[in-house]
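Lab notes, practical 5.
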Amino acid sequence: MRIAFVGAVEGSRVAFDALVEAGMAPSLLVTLPDEASARHSDFVDLSAPARAAGASVHLTRNINAPDTIAWLAEGRPDLTLVVGWSQICRAEFRAIARLGSIGFHPAPLPRFRGRAVIPWTIIANEKETGSTFFRLDEGVDSGPIVMQKLFPVTEDETARSLYEKHKQALREMTPLVVSAIARDNSVGVVQDDSLASYCAKRSADDGSIDWTQTAESILRLVRAVGDPYPGAFTLDGGSEIFVDQARMFAGRGRYIGLSGQVQAHTGSGFAVLCGDGETIEVTSWRGTKPKVHAKLVSA
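Output from the prediction step:
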């Protein structure tokens, strides 16, 4: 089977390698050029491993560009896999491969369609999530489900730990999806749109910490937007401090002050008062350690 593979992030590399190891090396790769790598904080250059596996490589910023469509059509793929690409694939693209186009989404479709799904899963305090392969259609993550794996979201889940769970699912599922379609191209269960929910796009600025929020909400934000994403941050006199790790420190009444005010230096970092009167301890950060009683503010 001739597979066209589209992707440009860490998960893309895992899925690509899984196909190679299973003897299903893609014949064609579409990925981003290096100069467009800033589009994804988890960008990975797939060009070298693809060429090493014998695949032809096409670099593009736009999956629907005429030259990209023409290149793919000339390659005559049987199946197209899209893993880690943030553009809607239009009808002309989807019609190229004989067996259709399959996408991957790090969510339990039909829930959590859309963008920035890993951060939103943690921010929304979800208890379960999943990895889903589905047939691309004219909608957003709305096509029939080919394969899905569900797994729990732990109380201390971080963006990195959840990303790793999805990478493991990709490692296991990608060859199975190709095999399933090769056996029966009709495979796929129509999604129930009445159960759908949609996640909005996030930007790096959305990592700004609002210290009037509860301690629990702030801790979830820190876990949700950290590695491999830009991170949660605050301002101290105009200087950015990125909060990479934090934990509960003291309950209501222990410290009395303003939301966002540094209450103490600790053995591991510094303690900040939150909007509900509870205090969190920042234990890993980037930037200058703020002084006691400094007032941290949102960007």
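Observations recorded by the TA: DSSP finds seven helices and 14 strands in the chain. The mean pLDDT is 97.
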